[in-house]
Amino acid sequence: MNLGNDSHGYDRPYFSAREGTAEVSRDAFVNVGVASPLSAARSSTREISPFNASHPRHEKNGNFTTRELGLITGKRTACITHKTIDLDPLTCAIMDTSPFQRLRNLKQLGCVQHLYKDGTHNRFQHSLGVAFLADQTCRNLQHNQPLLNITTKDRICIKIAGLCHDLGHGPFSHIYDGELQKRARKSKALMAAGDVPPPFCHEEASLMMFDAILKELGLEMDRTKLDEPLKQIGDGINASGFGVKNSNRGDLTVLHSRDIIFIKECILGEPLEENKGQFLGRSRDKEFLYDIVSNRHSGLDVDKLDYFMRDTQHCLATKADFSLLIEEVRVARALCTDPMPGHQCRNFPNEPNYHLMTVWPDKLVVTAMGFFKKRMELHKNIYTHRKVKCVEHMIVDILEMAMPYLRLEKGLSILQAVKDPEVYVHLDDSIIERIQFSDKVELKPAQDLIKRLKRRDLYKFITSKSISNDDPDSEKYWNMDEEQIKDGMVHAAKNQAALLEEYFELDKDIIIVEKLKIHHGKSDKNPVDRLRFLSKAEMIDLYDLPVEQLPEAKLVDDSNYRSFLPHSFQDRMLRIFCKKNDPNILHSVHVAFEAFISGEADGPITTLPYSGQSLPVFLTQDDSDSSGSNDEEEITASASKRPNISFYEEIKKRSKR
Fold first, then answer.
1. Are 358 and 325 in contact (CB under 8 A)?
2. Which among 390, 363, 365 is positioned nearest to 452, based on CA atoms?
3. C-alpha distances out from residue 507 to 126, 487, 589, Å
4. Total-model pTM
5. Model confidence over 434-447: pLDDT tens digits?
């Protein structure tokens, strides 16, 4: 068999007039997202019509030319995390669209590759992994609790939600809808120029891009006919053939507009805004399906399971195996663990605040705690590593510098693109190269910073200050905003310069103040308290129980796993970075922050009120010196002879006298 490779990286049957037919191995691997050789382990083959296999039949459908979904050919892709992933015709149709292919050019971990060299996997791979785990979860529930009546359509909708949940991510992971958006909203110039759209999150953008996929396939959801096939709006997939293929003989379960709403609700993790707080995709007896991709109750879902496993494997060269949480998941009644504002809980009759939700056997409580500990570990050692954050701050500065001058398609700014799918589909990590090679003179500062990044002349981490709930002094600094802290550091630097009777002014624009909060999943609370568990006896009975007779899953008291609990569920700290790498400036920033945060210095201290807080002010006279000598004059004279020594070094020298 000859194989051709199409523009999306798929190995497809290649036909020639001489061959007439193609032999396709059912175990053939498809090269999707990751490199994989084609398997030829089995020799059993079958003949397929060359026209139908390579090009599904096109026909006129009103004013449009439409086609059917491809054949079920046993396509698979190799996956470094999950070994192999099966690809059904509907999944392939969605993958073969430009909004989904865009995910190839979005690094899953943004800037992490600058620290962990193998952290180069992309959101295309992650999305396939989430779809795989979502499908596996549904299959396990179908097998272990058949009376839940999970249909094939339910399963494929959950799989598509997992596949498309990250469509809305912008360049460099969470930088785009996080720090860049935050900085832009503080910029009066950008706001006045209209370059900043209304507040957005990547989940909302994912819904927009999912609509763009449907549009590219010639389809659209019809809210006036929720229980009918999608509306045909252009050339593409036939609306009456857009669904789950059960065989190659026309056995098809068509997706309706209500199913599209269900997929969107699963992506968003809550009801759509236009549905006024009500889930419309599925009825109450199937509300547990919403927990699989984005678990609104506990946060334990297949999205996190995949990236915990994948990121650990790529960055730390170890495996994080949470397969038991997929294999042992069940559905039961349970009290609402986290009532969400904005939409109503679906209550059982006479049992307010009860839900049908995903639960686990109580023997897995330690495994569940390990899942949340893994979250903390990855955030601390990978996602918020200080070197990674140095690069992230540089990327944000580059994008912020370029935003007033770089225009994308339709004249939109970098942030405005999130509101137009036709522009957003072209916005990915390559935006840095677009800035770098632009001939606009206004982009020169951003281009110079890109050169620093390419040479690894990175911003520098200076120091950090842990914030404790038991320390009211540190808490008051946490309650300040970043600009207040920078102003306080500048004041502290001036006061220390006054101590030496020399002029020194610290430029606040070179200081970056970061408020870092990392936790196990539920802020300072135990995340396992949001999970519900069943006993062994209750697990055994589930197979024969209909929804109405499901047992109540309970909270497991933490005394049963106390030795596995961390000392604290949340860490908070202030971290200081500097945009310069001159050692003298770095020392100056360091000592300014320490003086500001602690109020300690070598000399008398008074206080100057600042926004309701106290700042250290260092007096220029040392009244304790009764010898008549003026140490400050000696230090100043010494410093004038050695101009490259910072006042930080002078303070250290003075402290030794």
1. no
2. 390
3. 42, 10, 9
4. 0.83
5. 999 999 999 999 99
